[in-house]
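Run log, item B.
One chain of 222 residues. Sequence copied directly from the ordering sheet:
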Amino acid sequence: MKDGKYKGAHWETRREILNKLKMRGALSSNVMAEELGISSMAVRQHLRELREVGDVTSEDLSKGKGRPTKYWELTEKANRHFSDRHRDLILDLLSGLSETVGQEGMDGLLRRRGAAQIDFYAKKMDRSASLFRQTKALAKMRSEEGYMADVERGEAGVCYLVENHCPICAAAESCAGLCAAELSVFQQVFGNEVSVERTEHLMTNSRRCVYRITPKQDQRIA
């Protein structure tokens, strides 16, 4: 793997391992082996080789009695295996654009982008559906855009939109307004009947972005 990219027959399995760790955080080799349908020994071999190139790290954790269990998680270096939408190009363009149009111009561009997102998402979401189904529809669209999104149920009808990857992370680091605009977009897509709050954020050292979507009044949640 001289160029930093995995090749050969084992890549498909390693890709699945990387995706699982990206989507769910730290996991044991036994859990991954069971879900992948291969032996724990095979998974550990893949993980050791992933660790050798710096893509994963491990920690022994004790949960109750018995011997500690080794849990594996991705390192920052592993981000190279996930889309970053041409990081260097984006950063150069944003820098030049900011200097050209100024803050007011940038704010206007973000509003325009947000309006386009709202229109696109709203057209594909059934507002008569339950909040959970609406959130699932949004997660599907976000996954198609590269965010590796999923939905988790909470209590009292609360839904959590979980985004395990940010394909525009480099741009968001350079332009903080992008993240603020995303939150505003979600709020407007769901309307005044719900509140949307970001509870985890990649830009504040979380491994993912999570949005808590809370109904303000009784709604169907099935």
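Observations after the first pass:
- The chain has two domains: 11-81, 87-215.
- The two ends are 47 Å apart (CA to CA).
Flagged for discussion on Thursday.
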